[in-house]
Amino acid sequence: QVQLAESGGGPVQAGDSLRLSCAASGRSFSSYNMGWFRQAPGKEREFVAASTGILYSSLYNTYYEDSVKGRFTMSRDNAKNTVYLQMNSLKPEDTAVYYCAASSRRGAKYSYEYDYWGQGTQVTVSS
Questions:
Q1: Is there a contact between 100 and 83 (Cβ–Cβ < 8 Å)?
Q2: DSSP states of the chain as a string?
Q3: Which is nearest to 72 in space by CA: 51, 61, 86?
Q4: pLDDT tens digits along 51-95
Q5: Which of 41, 39, 10, 24 shows the shortest CA–CA distance to 101?
Q6: What is the pLDDT of residues 25-51, one digit of tens each?
């Protein structure tokens, strides 16, 4: 069982930056594929970024949805059981509730592949 808690959201202006954090409780955090998703009003939840372990190593691959590439950076600190989403050059279309999720499936990038979810944190970007 993994419990996730996001923080760091809030209202910002276009072009600003925010860093979201997701603190996890439970065992074997380092073995989980961790993901960030977002859901805007009236839209389906969409993939933002994910971090998945590389077999037989302590390294991780990180991959992103196309619209956030070059602006968002996902990182993880296994010693702190925490993942981060650094969001730069924010745009009004980034406005959404951002969710952290954990999956036991390597390379997971669809919401149905994730087993555990946080409660979400609101990010609002005004123009």
A1: yes
A2: --EEEEE--EEEETT--EEEEEEEESS-GGGSEEEEEEE-TTS--EEEEEEEEPTTSS-EEEEE-GGGTTTEEEEEETTTTEEEEEE-S--GGG-EEEEEEEESSTT--SGGG--EE---EEEEEE-
A3: 86
A4: 987 777 778 889 999 999 999 999 999 999 999 999 999 999 999
A5: 24
A6: 987 888 899 999 999 999 999 999 999
